[in-house]
Structure formats: C-alpha cells, structure tokens
C-alpha cells in the first residue's frame, strides 16, 4: 500500500488526493475507491499492489497501466481490494489513510475534507468499528497518514486505535 507522496500532492500541498480538487490532480468529491487510487498511477511501479494477494476479486489489477487502453479505469473497484480514508491529512498522523476493505463502521456518513456526503463509512471509536471475517479471518491492516502500517485483530481493534491515537497525537 503506497500513498506516501501521492503524485507529490502530500508533499507540495500538505494534503492527500482525496482533499485536493480533481482539476488539481486530486480526487476530492469522487465516490469510487479506484478514483482515489488512480491519482497515484504515475508513482506506482505496478497496479498489482492495489490487489491483496489473499483476496479473491471478480477481476484482478492489470499488470501495467497501459497508455493505449483504459487500464485501471476499465476495471474500477473490481481491481482494488483496499478502502481509502478520505479525511486523512498529513497534520493528523493517526488518521486512516487506507486499509483493508473488510472494516465495518457507520455507513452513510460524510467527509467534509473530501466533500463527500451520505456515502462514507465512518470509523470513530464510538461507532464500534470491526473487521469482518470476509478476509484475513477477522483481522485487517490499516495505513495511517504518517506512513505507518498496523495490523490488528477484530477483538483488539478499538483498544489498538485508542493507543495509536494517544501515541501519535503527542508531540
């Protein structure tokens, strides 16, 4: 999972693609997961990393992003096995940037920074987020805005997040 510079947006604008206007190379207001990942096609060595090898999808990621064919655009969400944290900002290091898609929270919510409303699954601790058993056997991985990745089991997810929030917000 690679969102580190996201086409240079996080470095040059101190924002991740989901909070940058589409006209400026971002994916703000976009509802589909693949539309957030497509902003990184120039930096990804291969689109295969958008597909977890442990997950069976209807269609796998293409081997390359071909110029003459639509590539990932033709496959849309069927090529991506991850979710995007649309509200992540570099100034909040514990913000969820991306993670396995088998995470449940509160559906139908909004994300102000990404200007997406009524479509987001919110992952606040009060919503009791949890990993489903659809992949990784009630476990999952989460990438945070600081670039770190964390794996946790379903039973320890809320306590793990509380600890991460406490550690990552102290300066």
Give a verbal description of the structure.
The structure is a single chain. Helices cover 16% and strands 21% of the residues. The chain is an alpha+beta fold and 171 residues long. The model is unreliable at 1-11 and 167-171 (pLDDT under 50). It is built from 4 helices and 8 strands; from the N terminus they run αααββββββββα. The protein has a 4-stranded antiparallel β-sheet with strand order 1-2-7-8. Strands 3-6 form a two-stranded antiparallel sheet. It has helices spanning 9-13, 33-37, 72-75, 157-169, and strands at 82-84, 96-100, 103-104, 106-111, 116-122, 130-131, 139-144, 149-153. It has one domain (9-169).
SSE layout:
Layout: H1 9-13, H2 33-37, H3 72-75, E1 82-84, E2 96-100, E3 103-104, E4 106-111, E5 116-122, E6 130-131, E7 139-144, E8 149-153, H4 157-169
Antiparallel strand pairs: 1-2, 2-7, 3-6, 4-5, 7-8
Describe the structure using short key phrases.
single chain; alpha+beta; 171 residues; disordered N terminus; four-stranded antiparallel β-sheet; 16% helix
Estimated share of beta-strand residues: 15-25%
Rg result: 16 Å
Average per-residue pLDDT, rounded, comes to: 75
Number of strands: 8
Order of strands, main sheet, comes to: 1-2-7-8
Shape type: globular
Q: Give the helix/strand class.
A: alpha+beta
Helix content: 10-25%
Number of helices: 4
Entry summary:
The chain is α+β, with helices and mostly antiparallel strands and 171 residues long. It is 16% helix and 21% strand.
């Amino acid at each position: 999972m690679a969102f580190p510079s996201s086409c240079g947006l996080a470095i040059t604008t101190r924002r991740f693609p989901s909070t940058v206007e589409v006209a400026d190379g971002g994916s703000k207001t976009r509802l589909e997961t693949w539309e957030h990942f497509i902003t990184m096609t120039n930096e990804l060595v291969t689109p295969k990393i958008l597909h977890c090898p442990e997950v069976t999808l209807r269609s796998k990621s293409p081997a390359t992003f071909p110029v003459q064919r639509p590539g990932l655009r033709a496959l849309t969400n069927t090529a991506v096995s991850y979710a995007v944290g649309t509200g992540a900002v570099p100034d909040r290091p514990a913000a969820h940037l991306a993670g396995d898609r088998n995470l449940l929270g509160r559906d139908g919510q909004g994300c102000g920074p990404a200007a997406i409303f009524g479509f987001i699954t919110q992952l606040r601790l009060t919503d009791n987020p949890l990993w489903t058993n659809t992949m990784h056997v009630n476990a999952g991985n989460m990438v945070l805005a600081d670039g770190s990745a964390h794996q946790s089991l379903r039973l320890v997810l809320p306590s793990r997040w509380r600890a991460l929030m406490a550690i990552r917000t102290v300066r």
